[in-house]
Amino acid sequence: MIPIRDTIRSYSFPLVNYTIIGLNTVVFLFELSMPTKTLNQFLYTFGLVPARLHLTQPWLLIASPLPLITLFTNMFMHGGWLHYLSNMWVLFIFGDNVEDRMGSGRYLLFYLLGGLAADFTQAIIDPTSKVPAIGASGAIAAVLGAYFLLFPNARVITLIPLFFIPWFIEVSAFVFLGLWFVIQFFSGITALASPAEVSMGGVAWFAHIGGFIFGLIMAKLFIPRRHQAFTRNYHDEYFPW
């Protein structure tokens, strides 16, 4: 399922969301300008390599703190056009509404902390991996978790390619994002059954899972008081439990 747009209107300009998309775009274009060998070195240097975090011996990071920097730099790197476009499109659709509800400053902090939660979740699952993990999808998963919590009854216009015929359907965010999370969860469990698949890289399923859960649990803490009454009324209307 490919999201086309949502039906929730933003009441403020999503400055931070657009800036994040812009920074990801600049970094991706910079990656495209590199020869293959230089690009591989760049990805390994600034991507998140779980083994370099020394989760069982964190004091080693005092002498070599670069891995701590990669907890942030990896969020702005992508492995190809599909990776980049899919992440930025999802962020464009869902991020503006979350920023609108939180406010720009809180949204930026929430986004970065969500990315950190995703990074550590993936690193804990596969702490000895030497394959660099890159991409904004972990932080974006936190945004999706927040959207799921704040706008469960929003409608998402979705494209379903069926027998080469484009079908457009409208589903609730509760269904769309709930299904997305279920897919991530079971894909992650399946990957655990094949240690080679986890250690050799690929989709960082547990970064998605960790990010989404962070967003689901922490989103309300980032909503200023002036919006909390609106959020309560929204949930009381559509989800009285």
Based on the model shown, name its key terms.
single chain, 241 residues, mainly alpha, Rhomboid-like fold, 10 helices, 61% helix, disordered C terminus
Q: Calculate Rg over CA atoms.
A: 18 Å
Number of structural units classed as domains: 1
Q: So what's the overall shape?
A: globular
Sketch the topology as an H/E string, one letter per element. Answer: EHHHHHHEEHHHH
Low-confidence spans: pLDDT under 50, at least 5 residues? 236-241
Biggest sheet strand order reads 1-2-3
Q: SSE layout and pairings?
A:
Layout: E1 2-6, H1 15-32, H2 36-46, H3 66-73, H4 81-102, H5 104-125, H6 137-150, E2 155-162, E3 165-172, H7 173-192, H8 195-199, H9 205-218, H10 225-238
Antiparallel strand pairs: 1-2, 2-3
Helix pairs in contact: 1-4, 4-5, 4-6, 5-6, 5-9, 6-7, 6-9, 7-9
